[in-house]
Design goal:
Blueprint lengths: L14 H23 L2 E8 L15 H14 L12 E4 L3 H14 L4 E2 L5 H11 L4 E6 L4 H9 L12 E7 L5 E5 L2
Parallel strand pairs: 1-4, 2-3, 2-4
Antiparallel strand pairs: 1-5, 5-6
Length: 185
């Protein structure tokens, strides 16, 4: 019995080439999808409790705090909605002093501050990251809450601020690790 002869009328088997091409196209599509969904959320965290000392439960903002409010509006209030990196939302703790601290910046940007109420700092961080993915938001909270909020946003542990209220810029990418910048103003 003789082996069958190879005839020229048969085409070579191309399945390995087609399967490889389809896998490369699928991988390319996944990579493009990941690239398109990648974003960086920027959260500016300000500790603010320069309230007037006294016996009332929710004191007003002290004169030093009013000066800081004007300075904060000067630093962060130059971005309109058409400028990249503008602040899209302002979240505040529900105290009179923090509301007054946010007021000049909110007026300058034409934004209505969103009161966090009794939300935990972890819930506040999740809310901001969910609602402003790829954007920029400002959180003004009690100074004692800042370390908890920073840890919830970035996983970084910071110490309790001892001197003036801090200002942190947290960048949270969709993929990878968050970064943290601490500033004084």
């Amino acid at each position: 019995m003789d082996a069958p002869a190879i005839t020229r009328s048969r085409r070579p088997f191309l399945a390995p080439i087609w399967v490889t091409a389809l896998l490369v196209l699928a991988a390319l599509g996944i990579l493009i999808g990941l690239y398109e969904s990648a974003s960086i959320t920027t959260v500016v965290v300000v500790g603010g409790e320069q309230s007037s000392p006294g016996s009332i439960a929710d004191p007003p903002l002290a004169p030093e705090g009013e000066a800081r409010a004007r300075q904060l509006a000067q630093m962060l209030g130059d971005g309109s909605a058409s400028v990249p990196g503008h602040i899209e939302a302002i979240y505040i703790s529900a105290t009179r002093a923090i509301t007054a601290l946010a007021a000049p910046l909110a007026a300058r940007l034409g934004l209505q501050p969103i009161t966090l109420g009794d939300d935990s700092m972890e819930a506040a961080a999740a809310r901001v990251l969910g609602e402003h993915r790829g954007g920029t938001a400002l959180l003004i909270v009690r100074t004692k809450s800042v370390p908890v909020l920073i840890h919830a946003l970035s996983g970084v542990t910071v110490s309790q601020p001892q001197t003036e209220p801090p200002l942190f810029v947290v960048t949270v990418p969709s993929y990878g690790h968050a970064t943290l910048l601490r500033m004084s103003y």
